[in-house]
Structure formats: C-alpha cells, structure tokens
Write a structure and sequence with these properties.
60% of the residues lie in helices and 6% in strands. By secondary structure, the chain is of the alpha/beta class. The chain folds into 2 domains: 5-39 and 78-427, no CATH class; 432-613, no CATH class. The strands form 3 sheets. Strands 6-5-7-9-8 form a 5-stranded mixed beta sheet. Strand 8 (595-603) and strand 9 form a beta hairpin.
Length: 614
C-alpha cells in the first residue's frame, strides 16, 4: 500500500510544536522584554550549545568553550565526548555559519527539525509494517509523545500525585540525542526494507526472476544507506549507537534462532552490514583511545557485572514478548513471520543495553538508556506488536476503525501537551534568568570583537546558571561553570581549585560551605567538589551518598586553600571581567582585595566590570 505522507507530516508538525513549546513559553513569559535567547529543555544543553557556538565561530573540533583552550600543535588537547560525537554539532554548525545564525537560534531550529524528521522516519517504518497510514500516524505520536512515559519519567509522576515532572521530552534534548534520532529510526526502517516483507507476500509480481532482481537492486541501495545511518549515530551519541548495535545484534540472533523462510540471504546481508559497522567503529575506537582519563571519571564509568532487569523500558519489552507469545498461542501471529521476529528483536533490545555489563564488565550511566533511547525502542515495540494485531483485523478499513485511530492520535497528541505543560514549567524560572542575562553577554561579545585573544580572556560570573550559559553567547572563557568539568582539558584538581576561587572571591567561608552541603541545599558545591555521581543515585550504579565527614574534610581543604591563596600566582587564572547581579555588588570585599573594578556598566539586573589585578 502506498503511504499517504500527509499523515506523516501531521505527526511531524505535532512533534515540531512540542519541540518549540519551551521556546514559545519563554517568549510568552518575557513578552516584549524577550532578549532572543533559546529556552533550554535540559540543563546539560548549555554545554552542547557552548561547543556549538565554538564550531560556528570557526574554532577547532577539539575545543573547550569554558576555558578557551583549543587544540593546536603547541597545545594539543585530548578527545572529549563532544569532539568524538562531532557529527551532530557539525550538522548544525556548518549551515548556521553559512547562514549567519547564532547558537541560540541554531539550537531552537535544530530541535524542531530533528523532531519533525524523527516523526517522518517512525511514520515510514510503521507504515511499511502495517500498510496503514493512519495507524502509522497514531503510532508515531504514541512512540514519540510517550517517550517520557515509556521511561517511567516525565509528567506522569506529578499527574498521579507522587512524583516530580522531569524531564521534558528527553529525546528532544538538543542536539544530543535529538539530531541522532532521525538516523536511528531511519536505520530501523532500512533494515525492515532489507529483511522484512513490509506486509506483502514474498513474491509480489509472480515473476520470480524479476522479484529477485528487484530485491538485489533494493539491497544495493539500502545497505549503503543503512551503513551511513549507523555511522551517523556512532559519531553523534554514544547511547544511540550502542542501542542501534544492540538491536542489530538482537535481530541477527533472532533470525538465526528462528530461521524465517529465506533467512540465509538475510543473514548474509546482516553479516555484510555488521562488517561495515565494525569498520565504521575503527576511527571511533582510535579517538576514544586518545581521550583524557578525566573523561572516564566525569562520565562515571563503573566496573560491575550486576544484573539490571527492572527498569521501565525492560518491563515494557517483557510485556511485548508476553503479548507475542499469547498471540502465537492464539494463532494471531506466526512465530516465523518476519514482522513477528522484528517485533521480538525490538522488545529484547532494552534488556540487552541494560545488561551489557554482564559481558563488558562496565556500566556507564544507564539512566541515559532509560530516558534517551531505550524507552523509545520499548514504545516502538509496543506499537509494532499492536500494529501486527491491527493489520490482521477484519474491519480495519471501516470508518469506525479509522475514527478509532484518529482518536488514538488525538489522545497521544493530547498527552504530548500534558508533558509540555508539566515538565516545561520546571525550567521556566532559569530560562527567564538566562534570557535576562543576554544583554550583558552581548556586550562582552562586542568588547571582544577585535581581540585576537578573546577566547583566553576570563570572566568571573556570579550567576550560576547564567555563567554556565555564557559560552553560548560570548566568546570569552569563564573562571568556573557548572558544566566546565565535562571538557577534559581541565583536570579534576584544577576544576576544584577554580571552584575554590569562585567561592573565595564571593567571600564564602568554610562553615558556610559545609553547612550548605550537609543540609542538601548546595548541590552545586556537591557536584563541583565531589562529582555528579555523589549528588544523586540516578546517574551512577555504584552510588555512595556523601558523609558529613567527607564534607567537613572538603570544607577544611577549601579553607586551607583560601588561606594560602594569592591571585598573582602564575597558576591562578587572571580575571578580565566580572558579571554580578546588582544585589551582590556591595558584597565583593574579597574580590576587591585582589582586583580593581573599572568601567561599570549595568544591563538590567546585571552589572559588568572590567577587572585589573592590583
């Protein structure tokens, strides 16, 4: 059946609107005072946006927007998760640079385009499997609007009265993982075209020779496209490409174990694909070997072989396997039907990615599989298996059946707006703060316009969220920022000392530092001094809560550092600018001990000074 793409476009437009919802909400909240900043969906987006701006500005692949350190012959930089996952940001940066679009607008546009293209890819896949364009539209909305729900996250906790609404549409985090999603679902669709029957008899023309020629021609086109799609995921996002590899492995094992008719040709093609994918991974492995040791620590790599079987995407996958088994027992499905096997391979994938440590012995923040990709694969498995039930139904072409699908699509879209309403408001306040800070960032950009060393200039920004966001707007580096540690050019000790300096310039004492962490109020100090893995058990399978003894010892080390501190030492970054909320302007005696504040300029609630070392 020929797909009616207008239904895919409808689904895509809904997804694009969901992606733009945070931006629309910010513009609504700011009104005429909106300064043009993008609304982030996740606090980690600032690091991606800072790296994106650096690429738009023409800086090298291995750059650090927070410290201004760029790769060069004189100062080679190690690989980072940003420089290895370069495909996504370059996809955005190159056209943005050509068209003269800044990082804030590039981030906004990227989210909408990626959501739209992802919807088209999922629609194409579901349309091929079911032969029903309206079902494909409804299923696409279910898979993508239900992503947080399939992770057991998002709005559902607050709706049911027992949780916190976060995160917002995790697959739409720009540009990671959003930009890799179209390639991931395109890969699945291409493989279905290669090994599936797309809901048709294996010979559609009655001419076996003609069908064989047609199949070979399709494979010659599809196989290279599948390799390119996989390669794009590899150099875009770790969790997406490893999930793609796990699914391909699952598919191959299912095909070998259950042997559908003509499986020998399929296995040969999958073997060729696997060989090409291994070749694609060779440069990746080389870059990974050149990473900083700091990268493993920051990313919370844990050695373990423990089972992990009870995450929501896995439970959904097990449910799908149960439904398939029940359907086979009731003779609704045939075990060796290619579509049935395809659904089984999808359902098994979440369990594989959450338990790969049984083989590798390593676990890397499995929560990312739960919210950024495994949940969408689980949701896809659900929709595919119910699509198989739908396509065998007797009255599926009746008006009532079509209306039921339209109702399902509307329910899924409605849930998408529920997700938007509950989860976007969590970041409303900080998005407003970031937008309010845009004018001072723009002024710093203007001050650096003709300075060849602008990336080496250092800004002390006393707004935590605003300072974290500054590299998205201005070219200068910062003394310290919440996401600075994710760029491995800064070793852990230097990162801590930069935070020490941030604290002492603000006059924070030993007791104040310790008490804030003990009360659980100062999570910024927790992550800055102990790492993200000690702040929450969500990221680390080997989580150990902080003890008061550890906090007191760290506070003592800070006091010891502050007592011996001298801003004139060569290893201490020299400050060029200060950005502070006006309310803190009269509380900077500790900074004034070392620096003169010059050329005061005020931009709304923020004050900008040039600094000169005394």
């Amino acid at each position: 059946m020929k797909l009616k793409w207008r239904f895919g476009v409808i689904a895509g437009l809904f997804l694009a609107v969901f992606s733009l919802y945070p931006q629309l909400k910010m513009v609504y909240l700011r009104g005429a005072e909106w300064q043009g900043h993008y609304a982030y969906n996740d606090i980690d987006e600032v690091a991606y946006a800072g790296y994106l701006k650096a690429l738009i500005d023409g800086r090298p692949r291995k750059n650090d927007p927070y410290t201004g350190r760029d790769d060069s012959k004189e100062s080679p930089q190690p690989e980072s998760l940003f420089s290895i996952q370069f495909a996504g940001p370059y996809t955005v940066a190159i056209p943005a640079r050509i068209l003269g679009i800044g990082a804030p607008w590039a981030m906004t546009i990227t989210g909408a385009v990626a959501a739209f293209l992802t919807a088209l890819a999922v629609f194409w896949l579901l349309g091929m499997i079911t032969g029903d364009s309206i079902f494909a539209m409804a299923g696409t909305l279910v898979v993508l609007a239900g992503g947080a729900l399939f992770a057991g996250e998002g709005a559902i906790g607050e709706v049911l009265g027992g949780g916190f609404s976060y995160p917002y549409f995790p697959g739409f985090r720009r540009y990671i993982p959003a930009i890799a999603f179209p390639a991931f679902f395109l890969l699945i669709g291409l493989i279905w075209r290669m090994v599936g029957d797309a809901g048709k008899p294996e010979s559609s023309s009655g001419d076996e020779a003609a069908d064989l020629h047609h199949t070979k021609t399709n494979v010659r086109i599809i196989l290279p496209l599948a390799i390119v799609a996989f390669a794009y995921t590899v150099y875009s996002y770790f969790y997406v490409w490893t999930t793609a590899a796990a699914w391909l492995g699952s598919l191959g094992l299912v095909w070998l174990a259950l042997r559908p008719k003509g499986y020998g040709s399929d296995v040969k093609r999958l073997f060729l694909l696997a060989a090409a994918c291994l070749a694609v991974l060779a440069p990746y492995a080389w870059m990974l070997s050149r990473r900083s040791v700091m990268m493993d620590n920051v990313q919370l790599l844990v050695r373990t072989r423990d089972l992990d079987l009870f995450r929501v995407p896995e439970l959904i996958g097990f449910f799908v396997i149960f439904v398939i088994g029940l359907g086979i027992a009731m003779k609704m499905f045939r075990l060796r039907d290619r579509a049935t096997l395809f659904a089984i391979s999808l359902a098994l994938t979440p369990a594989i990615v959450f338990n790969q440590q049984l083989i590798t012995g390593h676990s890397l923040q499995p929560i990312h599989y739960q919210v950024f990709i495994g949940n969408y694969v689980a949701g896809l498995a659900v929709v595919v298996v119910f699509g198989l039930i739908w396509r065998t139904g007797e009255g599926r072409d009746k008006v009532g059946s079509k209306l039921a699908l339209v109702l399902l699509a509307l329910i899924a879209a409605g849930w998408g707006f529920v997700e938007c309403h509950y989860t976007v408001r969590v970041l409303d306040e900080v998005n407003v703060l970031r937008d309010e800070a845009m004018p001072v960032g723009n002024r710093l950009t203007a001050l650096a316009a003709n300075d060849p060393n602008k990336h080496k200039q250092v800004v002390l920004h006393l707004g935590i969220a605003e300072g974290d966001d500054l590299p998205t707007i201005a070219p200068q580096s910062v003394l310290w920022a919440r996401h600075q540690h994710v760029f491995p050019g800064v070793e852990w000790q230097e990162s801590k000392e930069r935070y020490y300096q941030q604290l002492l310039y603000q006059g924070v004492g030993e007791k104040q530092l310790a008490e804030g962490m003990k009360k659980g109020e100062d999570f910024v100090s927790m992550i800055s001094l102990f790492g993200w893995g000690r702040h929450t058990d969500r990221l680390n399978s080997d989580y150990k809560p902080l003890t008061f003894g550890e906090i007191d010892e760290e506070a003592r080390l800070y006091a010891e550092y502050a007592a011996a501190f001298d801003a004139r030492r060569p290893d201490v970054p020299k400050l060029d600018y200060l950005v502070t909320p006006a309310e803190l302007e009269s509380h900077l005696a500790d900074l004034d001990r070392w620096y003169e504040r010059l050329d005061r300029e005020q931009f709304g609630k923020y004050v900008l000074f040039k600094l000169r070392l005394r």
